[in-house]
Amino acid sequence: MGKITVRHYLNTKLKPEVCNDNYICFPIYLTITVNSKNIKRKSHITEFVSAKELENDFVDMPQIKTHLDYEADLITRIIRLYISDIDNRAIKNNLVSFFDLKGYNSKDNFINLLNAYIDFYSHSIYEAVYNQCSSKIENEVFERLKTVFNFADKTEAQRFFSYQNPIEEADFIYKNLSRESIEYLVLRERLKSFLATYANKTGYDIPLIDWKENLIQGELKAFLETYRRKSEYYIKDGFSIDKALIEKYISIIDNIVNADDYIQIAKSRRTTDF
Which comes out higher in pLDDT, residue 238 or 17? Predict the structure, then answer.
């Protein structure tokens, strides 16, 4: 496989900021070496830090230290996957099209694909899951448009189908749609809350490779099992998240993440407020 090195550094060529204690601070970048080939990338961790903090290994900034250590491990795991795909002749050349606005324009295709792999496998699965959950709800809405909804009057219907707030959306779904749509609503919103928890821990929003390597499922199950707040607008009386539903949620996410058309799912954008 060859040696893999992932190291953080401060990009002093960019415009600095004045941080705490009047230190001059710079954005964090990465230098990555794989098989004697080097790339430089902006870190996902957006804080500006000083040279002193970097030299002291962020002893006074434990969360940033944790996030940077996680990022180095994350990228190392992605690179190992990339090298494994090369060795097994299973390279995913189509990943260069995942981020349409990114220009992978190196003359070395190894570097282009390496950057594409890092971008793809570090991106969050949340958008894809949100899109699919919303699509399931939307499909039922449009099917039921053929019948009569339980609206008080035409004005209420028009207000809902404009830019309604999340509470109105949840009330509508509970009033009019099936248990399955309610489950998709709750999964969508619970995953959003979990995303915030995971990002606080790692600095990243549920990366694809973490799900692929089964590093998230246990934490998500525990989060769903222990989260008991009843004040959430989308949790109504009579609805509970039991172990069977949690396993169903894990299966739903697995099916989305492992779908043959996952790239298209992840790239799609919602067209309604569902």
Answer: 17
